[in-house]
Recover the amino acids of this structure.
DNA sequence: AAGTATCCATTTA
DNA sequence: TAAATGGATACTT
């Protein structure tokens, strides 16, 4: 973790056909996205709603639309600004590399490692992927292990399979 | 198809 | 600081 993490301004729900995601916003943009869970399904977030700035509402509108598009296998027309300042330098390099993977494409952990100039750091790349605060938009799910094996996924392998399937990506095992 | 050795940033003790 | 821990890989049975 990082001590100079940007303070969160609001947490808003994003309803989708797959459940209610939770979006965390900082002053810089979307700083976190959480998969639906029993925890946030019932949780009322109405309290924070009235505190959101006009800019925050705008970001949230964009994020909501983008997430719903992404979950239905379409490419989002536009994304809200992402605040990845909470990550270490290494993690930000990895996340940045992930954002360059086009929808429908995949890379291996080694390829990402090579892309950021550390061919042997595949394992560390895996760690950075797991630390990704904004899944889906930062496409950590498009990273497969060597030979297109599935590998792992912090947010649950079911999600990884589902996201890949909706982008028309094929993988083995 | 399993085991083993080595990889590297982060976390935890 | 040192040891443990992952969304790994490549090499060796």
């Amino acid at each position: 973790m990082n001590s100079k993490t940007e303070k969160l301004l609001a947490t808003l729900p994003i309803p989708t056909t797959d459940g209610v995601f939770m979006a965390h916003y900082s002053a810089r943009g979307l700083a976190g996205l959480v998969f639906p869970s029993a925890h946030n399904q019932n949780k009322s977030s109405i309290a924070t709603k009235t505190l959101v700035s006009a800019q925050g509402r705008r970001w949230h509108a964009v994020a909501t639309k983008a997430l719903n598009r992404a979950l239905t296998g379409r490419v989002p027309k536009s994304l809200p600004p992402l605040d990845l300042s909470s990550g270490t330098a290494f993690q930000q390099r990895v996340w940045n590399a992930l954002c360059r993977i086009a929808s429908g494409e995949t890379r291996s952990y080694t390829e990402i490692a090579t892309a950021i100039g550390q061919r042997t750091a595949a394992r560390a790349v895996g760690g950075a992927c797991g630390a990704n605060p904004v899944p889906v938009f930062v496409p950590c799910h498009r990273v497969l292990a060597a030979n297109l094996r599935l590998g792992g996924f912090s947010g649950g392998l079911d999600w990884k399979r589902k996201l890949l399937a909706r982008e028309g990506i094929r993988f083995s095992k």
